Amino acid sequence: MAKSSDIKTGSVLRFNNELCSVTEVQHRTPGNLRAFYQVRMKNIRSGKSLEHRFRADETVEIARVEYNNYQFIYPEGEHIVVMHPETFEQIHLPISLLADKVKFLKEGMDIKVGFENDEPLVAEAPTFVELEVTYTEPGVKGDTATNTLKVGKLETGAEINIPLFVNQGEKIKIDTRTESYVERVK
Predict the structure, then answer these.
(1) pTM of the predicted structure, to 2 decimals
(2) What's the chain's average pLDDT?
(3) What average pLDDT score do residues 70-80 get?
(4) Rounded distance, CA 32 to CA 120, Å?
């Protein structure tokens, strides 16, 4: 057991018999009241967000989550198959761990997976990926002056909005957190 002062952003707590990932922690000391920690959490299983106030001396249970890097191999139904790069052990992860970020994955990309007692809890796609545009309407010379966007289909099948000057066959960098175009890759 740990104290509430040990809670950090990114920690995984066992709260009400559920595993919750901490997204924000604030230490507050209002004028004539006792200090407390205001914690925002996200339930790992259901995805629901919740807030809770912990007293400064309250005990909490921090789950031991071990993170490892795995290599994405291929999707298979409601799962994705990943491989440990050193032991070559393959495991099946539910697609729900990555949510909609799975559409940006291609073979060989690294994924960070968090385990508790050999059970996968959390999976994180790379923050930035470089993918080729397989289809988009052709750009017209001089289209760089405005911030107008068009739809581009990527090599993984995902579709995102890209600037008018990006053409078919070019590689672009994408931020998977916002699912948006960042820049062209040379």
Answers:
(1) 0.74
(2) 90
(3) 93
(4) 44
CATH number of the structural domain 128-185: 2.40.50.140
Domain range list for the chain: 2-62, 67-124, 128-185
Residue located via tokens 């912990």: 54
Instruction: Give CATH for domain 67-124.
Output: 2.40.50.140
Is residue 73 within 8 A of residue 121, CB to CB? The reply is no
Whether 141 shows a pLDDT value over 70: the answer reads no
CATH code reported for the domain at 2-62: 2.30.30.30
What percentage of residues in the chain have a pLDDT greater than 90?
A: 60
Q: How far is CA 18 from CA 10, 30, 47, 55, 60, in A?
A: 16, 30, 11, 20, 13
- Separation of alpha carbons 29 and 166, rounded Å: 52
